[in-house]
Each structure stands twice: as C-alpha cells, then as structure tokens.
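Input chain follows. Return structure tokens only.
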Amino acid sequence: MSLDTGTEALARLAEERVDHRFKGLPPDAEGLTVGELAAQRRNLFEDGFPTPVLALSAERLEHNLALMESYTQRHGLAFAPHGKTSMAPQLFRRQTERGAWGITLAVPHQVRVARAFGTRRIFLANELVDAPALRWIAAELGRDADFRFVCYVDSVRGVELMDEALRGAARPVDVVVELAAGEGARTGVRTEAECVAVADAVAATRTLRLVGVAGYEGEVPQADPDRVHAYLRRLVALAAEFDKAGRFAGLAEIVVSAGGSAWFDAVADVFAEIPELSLPVLKLLRSGAYVSHDDGRYRDVTPFNRVPEEGALEPAFRLWTQIVSRPSPEQAFANAGKRDAAYDLDLPVAQVIRRAGTERLATGVSVTGLSDQHAWLRTGPEADLEVGDWLGLGLSHPCTSFDKWQLIPVAEADGTVVDYIRTFF
C-alpha cells in the first residue's frame, strides 16, 4: 500500500454518506457526505446535534500531537504510538506527519485497517501465531518492498507455528523477543535463559529474522520508578547480550522497544543509557493514549505529573449528554450510558452544564453509575440542574472511549465542528 494510495483512501472517508449508522450526528444531515457536513462548520450546541454526542477538542488534540512530537525528539526516541487506542486512520496520518516512525497495533485486523490507509511501518506489540493472518502479512511484505513489519515472539512453540505458516514467503518476518515484565505479567518470556532459547529457535528458521527485543513496562508488578527502571535495564541488557553473541549480524539497526502511557519517562531515562552496540539502535516508544489523553486513568498516571517541566497533556474528549429525568432533588438521569462512555476503569466525571447558551461548572453533580443508556447522577443541594440541560462528561481510558463511536466530531472551543474522525473497530 503506497502512501499515495493511502491518501486516496483517507480522502474517500469524506465521501461516505451520513446516515443512521452514525450516532450523535444531526438528523437533517442524512444523505450528505462527511466532507459536505464538515464544510458546513456546524456548531455542536446550536446546529442540530442530538445527545449523546462525543466530541474531540480540535485545539487539545493538536496540542497533544505537538507535545509528544517534541518530547520524543528531545529524548532521541523513535515513536510508534499505539493505534489500538483510536483505530482512526486519520489520526494515524496526523501522528506520522508529526514525526512518528510508524504505528503500533495489537491484532491482525488492526494491521489490515492500517495497511488499507497506507501505513508503511507497523509494530505489532503481540505474539502472532494465526496462520491465515501470517500468510496475509507475508503477502503484503512480498507485494510492497517499502512495508516494514515487526512483531513479538515469546516461545519456541510460537516460533514453530510462525515458521510453518510462513514457508515459501518471499521475505522473512522481523521479530523481537518479548521479555516479560515479571511473574504475573501478561505475555513475554520470563527469564533471560528462555529468551536465548527463543532467539535460537528464530535463528534456526528461514522465515523469521530477529531484529531486537521489546517489552511493556506497564506490566511490572507493584510498579514504582525503581522497579520500572530495573525492568527496562534488564531489557537493554538483553539487547546488549544478543548483540555480543552476534545475533543481529547483517541488520541495519537493532530495535529496542517499550513504552505505554504511564512510564514513558522511565523509558526515556533508561534508553538514554543504552551502551554503544555494533549497530545503530532504534529506540522505539509506543505510548498511544496521549492522542486524546483523558480525565481519569491517564490524567492520574501520566509521566508529565512527575516531570511537569516537560509540559502537560490535555484531555481532548468530552461526552455531551442531556438531562432527561429529575425524579428527586438528590437524583437525576442523563441520556448516555455504557453504550456511549468508557466505564472499565473509572466512571465519567460531570464537568460542565450548558443551558441557554451559557456554560458553567457542574457543581454538586456526580456520576454514580451507568446503565446501558443512562447515567445515574447524584445531585447535592448546590446543584442547579434541570431537565433539558446539557451535561458535559469527562471520560477515563481513551481505548474504551473511541471504540463506542464510529464518527466523532472534532470541535473548536466555540463549538464549531471542523472535522469528523472515522474509527474502525
């Protein structure tokens, strides 16, 4: 998939017709193309958008993209943000335009989406032993000499299954040995000795090529700065040992990759210490939640809390709901629930109330639970809340916010909708 072809695929998103498939869009936009609707620059609050509707802040989205671009450049890191967060090819393109090396993904379907929109470099932060998916990836590698694909391996059996599926492939598949973050972590090889066995298994094939090591420090048990730094130093030491043993001979570079959205400052610290190896090192960071940030999980754990001199991410999502019931002075209900809002880590947070074009803080209003289509609200004596008011909610966990909306308005601070982001989950 060439970049030009990907650009054409992105352009076709604007040609898609607005209809019943896309919730939160104006009913009178039925039949318009997405591009035509965007060109109307409707106001989110005044021009027919029904509730609930999820919106992305245009200014905050741009701020977050720019901040991580400058951060990774300042620390000498290559960047492959995790695309599973948004599954939005328009955002993939903006991320690569802002200096990203490529896009990280988790499962074969996500790779197919990214390839359909021209992504040339993909890091699959997962083991891949599914034979049909491997054969499809091998065909993509054979068809497109510019396509770079790297994925995890963490077992000899996994290597055997990959080798069996890839027999006859035109190009070997690049792999990195995944070092687990400790006992009880998710995937990954538990000990360095086992890493050697997996690397030996890769070397015995013609279908796979070992290009580095990787891991996910977010799985470190009882994570704190000391434990996370210690794990990352193990990862770097493994790369150095593999290099000393000549396992990377013939490559152009060695891949060393880590980095979720909670400890990328530790990754920057430790990767800055990587000793000189026999080849240049691609220090690949994979943090993805930054693109929208949030008002919960990542607000609390972002590394920028520890290094405020480096800047600050801004939450870009807001879910607009409407008060549909006020059965008592202590309770109200809004018309958004589990179908609309992330709830796997934290409940949404009541932030602002809009009434008659005026916005104010949602003082005395809290979300206590979610049904499928309703938010349960507790209202204190200071809460000024009426049926018909719009309530803006902050969300936690971007990965389970994007996946509930297929077409997301991007709105400027005054409510002007300037774009629509299409997701593919």
